[in-house]
Structure formats: structure tokens, C-alpha cells
Amino acid sequence: MFNAAEMSEIPLTSSVSKGCFVFKSASKKRKRHVGVEVLPSLHQLNKKVLDSLAEFIKKHGLGCSSDNWRQRARETPTAALMLGVNVPDHAMTFRSLCNLLQDSVTPFVVSVHAKECAAVKLLIQKVLEQLMGRGVSVDEEQEDDTALLQRTQCTISALCQWYKTVTKSLPVVVIFKDFEAFNSQVLQDFILICSRYTQELPFIFIFGIATSPSAIQHRLPHSVSSLLCIEVFHSLSRTQHLASVFDKLILNSQFPFKLSSRVIQVLVGIFLYHDFSVQNFVKGLQFSMLEHFKSQPLSMLCCQKQEALLSAKTLSKKNVERIRHLPSFMRYVETQEPQEQVQLLTNDEHVKVTLLFHNKLHVSCIEKNLWETEEYDSALQLLRILAKDELVAALRKCAEILKSTKILQNVLQQLEDFIGRLEALEGVSSEDSSGNGIISGKMEYQRTDLFQLQKTLLEKESRRTKRMNPYEVLRSQVIEFIDSLVREYLTPAELQPLNEVCYYSSSGVLRQRLNVTPRTSIQAALSHPFYYLQNESLKTDAGTISSAAPDLCIVYKLHLECGRLINLYDWLEAFLTVMSAAEDQDTNSEECGKYDSLKHARFIQAVSEMEFLGFIKSTKQKTDHVARLTWGGC
Amino acid sequence: MFSSSSLPIQPLCIRIIQPSNLIKRMSVTLQCPGYPEDTLRSLAERLPCRETQLATLLALMGQPDQYSYPSVFIYGHRATGKSHVVLSIMKDLELPHASVDCVECVSSGLLFHQVLSAFFGPDAAALLPRCPSLSDFVRLYKQMSSNSPATQTRYIILDRAERMRDMDFSLLPALLRLQELVNDNVTVILLSEIVWEKFRPNTGCFEPLLFHFPDYSKAELVQILSWDHHPSYTPELYASYINILLGVFFSVCRDLRELRHLAVLNFSKFCEPLEKGEAKESDIHKLWKNIEPHLQRAMQTVYLREVSSVQWEQQQMDEKEATTLRVLSAHAHIELPYYSKFLLIAAYLASFNPARTDRRFFLKSHGKIRKTNFLKKHEKTSNHLLGPKPFPLDRLMAIFYSVVDSRVAPTASVFSQISSLVTLQLLSQVGHDDQLDSPKYKCSVSLDFILAISRCVCVCVRLLDLLALSLVIQSQVVRQERSLFTAVSNLHLL
User: Fold this and answer.
1) What own/partner pairs with CB < 8 Å and gap ≥ 24 does B290-297 have?
2) Which one of B83, B335, B341 would you mutate to disrupt binding with A, by most A Cβ within 10 Å of its Cβ?
């Protein structure tokens, strides 16, 4: 998946500016960074479920000899691996599962895909190929053996014979990557056949299921499912998966490239509304990064701090000029003293110095949670009703974060002070039982959703303003403090000077590229050919047809006026009329009605192109008519 | 090639009348000339409750060197001992036989291969050409049998013979009179769970001998199941355990294999009071009280494979924690992207509502429609009983846009969601012709599923209304369907 991103980088070289060459290597580095960062994180996420799967297989691989009765019942151990609906995302999971099993449990791992197994024969062939092919490749007699495989019957009994020669008594794992897509008859037959050989050949199945475990029961009758001993394994839910990727990549201070809130909305929207694909999300992230480095020359400053400082010192004159034109920088300049303003606008060196300074500030801002600014209100509401111990815990966490940054030392001091006071309160608040009761009551509310909570909170707040226990007084103080703190330091990213360097914000481009609308663009191309061809002669008023437009466009426009069935002759007539409209002025009228074989041929071609595009099809209802396929009936 | 000399043979049906008492059955002594008597005796001991079938089969087979009937068709329910009896006879009496499971024979070539290699060794089977035809097989068989003619009757046993019907249409009729074709002392035994009437080809064929294996009665099941009693307990205790087990399961399951599986699974639980010293072996009532609810629970879980047998055992081990296992069908919830849910709802509505009513349900300003003849009579009766109806893509999208609460651009990802719903088999595509040619779909999920989805999607009240409106018409039908469904599933269990 990362190769695709690599390829799309090619157009970058067209840029001549020196800065671009600098950033090119930087962007490459960054991109690889994304890859390096995400891959292990995904592995980590699935590690738990994969480990439990391996454990399951180990257990069954060893235990098969000990419990005799199960052999009699011919039950094959089966793991149902729940992976969520996005099937393309599963490839990586299965790859790591395969590797894990081959490394730690058994070399005999086969994974099959529904597409390659339309019949039992093909499925068995696939299994045999993967198992025996792998085994013999070591013996350097590959050619002979594959020939032998073709010669020997493609049956499980042949596999049995092969298994006896290997004699490792390790289980044979068959992974069905997309269980839903398998033909149920094929699956049933395969399971029946395998169950005949369980004594000699310890099979273990893994079903990769995208929907729900009940899919097994829907697909297999009782006589077959009674041959399986099914255990369900759940992988992380898709949204959890995304959240952890989010933490790793976007809310990470190590990673200088940032997305504006709009862009994040687009990416998360695609994820939640359309595909649930973490892979696509990462791709979108990579794409926006490439776009950023491509479209914003100043993005060369978007890298680790040391590198950024270094490159800031060596900024070319052109790039300094670019900085001056940045809207955020102009805003910043306006807030400065007049003398400073002049200096900023004239002296390159001065700009560079301020830039260094800002860079520092900027990094510190980024380190805070970006989302707090956006969901600030709700977060604050939540803070207001936090019970004491939770508040203390939250503050402790804040203090720890601040300790690591070393910038906001005085804030840290204050925070610790608050924590101390809160802890001191412990004795007092325990006496005030009524207050505590209310607090614990609220704790329960917290578990319900935020909306409900806010509502009840507002009611209670209004009722209870008279009597506040010391804890609540202190709490409101804390909240005020945090509020002021946030307002001071966490200004929205868009207002920060030089935000353009690190923030990618063109959500429109991203939406256009990632969430394409083929139908709209075809319609746009056909009804407004000027939009794509950029030929002045094609510019027309809405609703009219230019005779200069391509034949296809004319035919398309004409067909929009028809109902479900289109008479070909009438269509041709209308087409000829439009075609001749341009020539009408200089030719006499008698030629007009004549059949021109060239025009006829052009019409036929245009109609067949329409058919190819899927707008019309031939119909048997009337021989000289074609049927519209797009909204013709309405 | 079918010689006219063979007599027109009436289908001969042998029905075994169940002897009423066990004693009489035990007294049946096998006397078949040509076979060693002590082997026969041990065979009869190993096949309890199947003595009569054994005797009849042996009588049919005749003496080893005599020609036997060309083909025998044995049928009976699952786990009534068909293959077990036949294969035991073959193995114990050391008769030349080829046993083939037809599920495995994905091509007829495999069947020929297995038969030839069983009778004449793998070298003979290797002589078969790449895609052997029936005549190849017959030719090779003749050639081989002329070299080594049968001194004893050779048997070809075809398990799960119903699969033969899916193979080459000439295969079954040819195998039924193989004896004639190859001129050898060979008998084909077909084993199947379904009756011969479902096999008979249109063109007619040689009628095999029909032979029915009846289900085991309750007493017979007790007798067989009591065989594998636990060594550390008395056989009487195990027999009473089996009686209790059958008391619970006999009404739903008569499959010997399943019953045996269940018996093994639950025996340790049954013995628990004994091991703790809370009850004695004679305390049957106490033991029954202990095990009965447990077995009831087993019927709903492990028997239906909602819970795997390993998990079931695990649960028995740590009973104290009272962990309730999540059964398989409890995870019915499917996480779907937001628009996919709406697409699925739209597909459901399109599948179960007549297209005529769309205007009324989905247009905000539909004209007045007179209520009396709003639905035609045949539409009123059974939308759910008829199952989902196919609908074109256009209609799906139109309903989708009217159902979804925000403006949705017709992006590629919306359309690709439809195809991924098809891969997940939540929708199914009807007719596999050209994609350009206005594809049609069917919704293949249940009402409950749609209701669950719309419950978690529905912020907009309108959609709920819509669903309610369109479902009110069908609710009557749904209720009928439910009762029918439960009746059918009960039938299935019986």
C-alpha cells in the first residue's frame, strides 16, 4: 500500500524551486515515517487476538491425541475470527497471522480466498499446492514434484499420504479468508471430506468472518456444523482501531505534519460513513501529506525542530517573500509595533530570527491536544461534574504531561498546588455526606451519554447554586484556572502565525480526490463539455446545445428529453437538426433534409458510446427503440 | 450393451419387521455357509440391534464364490449404522471391496481410480488416462479382471450415493449393472439417506435391491449407548444415566452419533455428586435432579453448536464462577458504516414493499390515494411469505435518498458499499448478466436484523415512521410466518 503513495510522488519533480528538492527528501522520510509508525501499531492492535488464536491452535494441535472421544465425534477445531466489515483491511491481519503461526506453531498453514475456490476441486487443489509445494521446495526437486502432483490425484487422501511422509504430527491450519464469500456447498463438502480424515490429518480451520458468527449457522446445516468445534475470537472494533491510529499519528508531538480540523472531518467522515477502512484512512493521511508538501513550498520547514531551524537559517529570498504573504503571518505583523512591522517587511534576517522564535512556540502549542479546542465546551462541562478522585487523577495526568515539556513550569506549580489542596479536602468532604451523595449520584450519570448528562446537569446546577460544599468551591476554582489556561495557550491552530507550514487545510481537494463522484463528473462532462475541454467555442447558455460540441454530448442532451424508450429515428432526426443548425446559414435548405452517410455514421457511433457508458441499452419491447437506463422512467 | 436376456426385475423391497422383544433378536443365530462361524459370531456381537439386517445382508451376499445380486441400495436415516454394518462385514470377513465416499469424488475419474486401485492395486489405477470416461474404466476393469478373475464376490461400496446424481448422468445406470458390463462377480452397494425414488433417472435403469435400515428405537438406543460405560462406574449406573439423557433428548434427536457425543460431554457432571460423596449410585432420583436442568441447557446450547464442546467442558469445570457463555447467535450485531445501514434499510423496503406504494411512502406530497383499493388483494396476503423481491438499482437509490436524513453525494464509495454488501451476502444480486444492464438486487436479511439496524441509526423519526408504516401492513403476515417458521424448525428437529 505504500508503493502507491511512492508512485504518486513523481509530479513533484516538476517544481524548479530549490526548496522543493530539499523537501522532497524530507517528505519521503516523513512518509516512510507514517509507514513505520502505523504498521507496528496495527500489529500491536491485533496482537492480542492473534496470540489467543495461536494459543488455541497450539492447544488443539497437542491435545488431539489425548481426548479420544472427540476423535470419535469427528469434530474439527475451528476458530471464528471476527474482523469487522472492511474486507480489504483483513489482508494485513491474515499475513501477520500466517507469519505468527508459521513461526510459533506449525509450518503447515494454508490460506484460501473464496475467489480461487469456486468448486471443491479447486479448493482441495489450492490446499494441496500450498502444503506440498512448500514442503518439496526444499528438496530441489520442485519440477518433478509438481509434475507428480498433477499426476497423483488431487485428493485429501493424497495429502494424507504426504503428511505421513513428513511425520511431524503438527496440525494443518486452513484459513478461509473471506468466509461469507465462499459457496456454502463447497464449504460443506470440504468440511465433510476433511472430517473423514481427522484421525490421520489433524485439521484446524480458521474462518475470517466479516459480519457475525451466526453467519456460520446460516451457511452450514446442522449436519455439517456438528462436525466443527467452534470458538469465537473478536478483534478490535473498527472505531477503536481508528482511535488508536489517531493517537499514534495525529495527536503525536513527534510528528510535525498536522491536519486542520476540516481535513480531519473529511477523513473521519469517509471512515465512519463509507468504508470503516483503517487502511484507507492511512492512505488519505499519506495523500494529504503529499498534497501538502507539493502545494506548499514552505512545507520544507515542516520537519523535526533541529532540521527546521537549520533550514530556516538558509531560507532563500523567494521563500522569505512567501512567508510574508502568508495570511497568518500578515495577521501577526499587524499586531506588532510599527517599527517592528517595517523591519519584518523589509529585513530578511529579521524574519528568520522571529521565525526561529515562533517555531519554538508553535511546537509547544501542538503538543497540547488539538481536539480540546474543538470539543472544549463539552470537555469543560464534563470537568464541572467530575467527582473528586477523578478530578485529582486528571490533574495528575496533566501535571505529568507538563513535567515532560518543561515549558509551562509556573502552570505546573499551580496545578500541583491545586492537587495538594484537593487532597487536603478529603477529611472535610467526607463529613459533608449530603454533598457526597450528590456527587456519587452524578458519577452514575457519567456513564450515560453526554447529552443526557448535560441536561440533568443544567437542571441541578440551577437548583443547587445556594449551597456549595468546599469541594465544589474548589472545583470551580480549578475549572476556572484550566479555562483561563486553555484560553491562553490553546488558541485555535488557524490563528497561530505560520500555521500554514505545518497544517494541511485544503479539505475540498481532499474530498474531491478521495470521495470521487464518477456519475456527476460524467454528467458534467457530457452536459458541459467546456468544463473539461476548455474550448471557448463550447461555451453555451444553460439548456441549449452547441452544434460544435462533440457528438456524444449532443446525443446525450437530446436523450435527456426522452422518456424510458427512445425512438432511434426521432433521435437521429433531432441530431441531424442540431448538426445542420450551424451549416444552415451558408447552405441552402434542400441539402438540409438529405441523408448524409457521414452524419449517420457519427450518430451511430455516438449511440454506441452511450450504450458503452451505460446510459441506454437495446430493448426487445420495440425493435427500433432503445431503453434509457438512467432515471428514464420518472 | 444392456443385454436383453436379463429378466425384467421388479423392484424388490425388503422390509424388516422389528422383532418386538430383545430376547428373540439375540437368539437369531447367524448361519451362513462359506463364512467362518466364529467371525460371524463376533461380528454379531459388535453390531448390536442390527442382527436382522446383518443376517439379511449376508443372505443376499450368498457364499463368497457365488454371484451376488448386481446392485443393492441401502437407505436409512443418518447414524442408523448403514456404512458401519456393511464395512464391518467387509473387513471382518476379509472380502475384496472398494469403499468410496461420493463426497470426495469431485470427478468420476476419482471414483474409477479408487475402485481400480482397491481391486487391482495402484499400478492398475495408474493406467487410467487423464480424464477417464466410463468406457475407459470398463475396458480397464475387464482387462484386469481377465488377468485375475474374481474368486470371491467383489464389492463396491458407495457411501453418500446421493452425490452420484450430480455426476455424469450415465454413471449411475452403468454402475447399477456393472456386473453385466464387466462380466465379473462384482456387486455395487449404494448407501444413502434418501429414498430410491429420488434417484431413478428419467430414462429408466436397472432396479437395485432396496433395503431399509430403520431408526433405532429408544430401547435399542439405550442398549447401544450403554456399551461405552465408564470403567470406574458400574454399567447399571451408566445405563440409568443414558435413560435420563434419552428422556431429555429423545424428542429432539435420534442421531446415535450426536447422542453419544452428548452422553460423553455430560457424564462428568452427572457423576459430580457421587465424587463429592453427596449421593450414592442408588440415589437415581437425586442424580436426576442434579443433571436434568443441565441437560436442558445443553439442548439449547451445545447440541445446536451454539457453544463448542470444549467451551462446554470448560464451563463444567469452573461451574462455581457461573460464567454465562455467549452463544454463537447472540453476536448477531454487525458493525456497519453509516450509509451502509441506510442502504440496507432501503434495500429491505424495496424488497418487501410493492413498487406501486413507493410514491405513497417516500414522497412528501403524495396525492390522495383511496384507502379501499390501495393494495391489491394478492399484495395484502403475503409479502413476507413470498420472500424478498428483486428491485433495480435505481429504485434502491431513490429510496435511499429519501430515507437518509442528509444530502449525500452519489460518490463512488456509496456505490461500492452496495457491492460490498453483496459480498457480505446481506444483499444478493439477481441474475449474473452484464453489470451495465441495470443490475437487480434482493435483500437477504431478516426483519429483526433491519429493526436492530434502524434502531441504532434512527435519529430521524421519519424513518421509523416509514418502517412502521410499511411494516404494519406486513405485521399480520410476519406473525403467521413466525409461527410457521417455528413449526418447520420443530419438524426439522424431530
Assistant:
1) B291/B241, B291/B244, B291/B266, B292/B244, B292/B248, B294/B266, B294/B269, B295/B244, B295/B245, B295/B248, B295/B249, B295/B266, B296/B248
2) B335
Length of chain B: 494
The C-alpha atoms of residue A441 and residue A448 are separated, in whole angstroms, by 12
List C-alpha distances in Å: A522 to A525, A531, A532, A553, B426: 5, 11, 10, 11, 30
Contact B335 A180 (CB under 8 A): no
Q: Are A493 and A370 in contact (CB under 8 A)?
A: yes
User: Who has greater pLDDT, B140 or A299?
Assistant: B140
Give the DSSP H/E element, type plus range, for residue B475.
helix B461-493
Q: Which helix (H) or strand (E) holds B37?
A: helix B37-46
3-state SS class at B459: coil
Ramachandran angles phi, psi of B33, nearest 5°: -65, 145
Instruction: Collect contacts of B351-356 with beta carbons under 8 A, ≥24 apart.
Output: B351/B388, B351/B389, B351/B390, B351/B391, B351/B442, B351/B443, B352/B383, B352/B384, B352/B388, B352/B389, B352/B443, B352/B470, B352/B474, B353/B383, B353/B470, B354/B379, B354/B383, B355/B391, B355/B395
Determine the residue of chain A that is closest to B341 in CA distance: A273
Q: Give the lowest-confidence range in A235-239, A615-619, B88-92.
A: A235-239
pLDDT in tens, B463-494: 555 555 555 545 444 444 554 555 455 444 43
Chain A hits for B420, Cβ within 8 Å: 85, 87
Model-wide pTM > 0.95: no
Using left for φ > 0, alpha for ψ between -120 and 50, and beta otherwise, residue B160 falls in: left
pLDDT digits (tens, 9 = 90+) for A497-514: 566 666 677 777 887 788
Gap from B11 CA to chain A (nearest CA, Å)? 31
Kindly give, in sequence order, each residue whose CB lies less than 8 Å from that of residue B167, ignoring residues fewer than 6 positions away.
B102, B105, B107, B108, B111
Residues of A in contact with B437 (CB under 8 A): 617, 629
**Residue A258 reports pLDDT greater than 80:** no
Residue of A nearest to B160 (CA): A192
Would an 8 Å CB–CB cutoff place B410 in contact with chain A? Answer: yes
Measure in Å the smallest separation between the Cα of A226 and chain B Cα atoms. 6
- According to DSSP H, which parts of A406-449 are helical? 409-431, 433-447
What is the value of ipTM here, to two decimals?
A: 0.83
Query: How is residue A536 annotated by DSSP?
Result: G
With helix as H, strand as E and coil as C, how does B65-107 read? CCCCCCEEEEECCCCCCHHHHHHHHHHHCCCCEEEEECCCCCC
Confidence band of A629 (pLDDT split at 50, 70, 90): confident
Q: Give the distance, in angstroms, between the CA of residue B10 and the centroid of all CA atoms in the same chain.
A: 31
Query: Would an 8 Å CB–CB cutoff place B411 in contact with chain A?
Result: yes
Least CB–CB distance from A226: residue in B258, B337, B409 = B258
Q: In whole angstroms, what is the distance from residue B429 CA to residue B390 CA?
A: 8
Distance from C-alpha of A264 to C-alpha of B411, rounded to nearest angstrom: 19
CA distance B12 to chain A (A): 31
Q: Is B490 on the interface with A (CB under 8 A)?
A: no
Contacts of B305 in chain A (CB under 8 A): 217, 222, 225-226, 228, 230
User: What is the least distance, in Å, from the CA of A193 to any CA of chain B?
Assistant: 6
CA distance A611 to chain B (A): 9
Amino acid at B49: C
pLDDT band at A517 (very low <50, low <70, confident <90, very high): confident
**pLDDT one-digit tens code per residue, A304-360:** 666 666 666 666 667 776 766 666 666 666 666 666 656 555 555 555 555 544 444
CA-CA distance, A261 to A245, in Å (whole number)?
A: 17
| Amino acid residing at A414 | Q
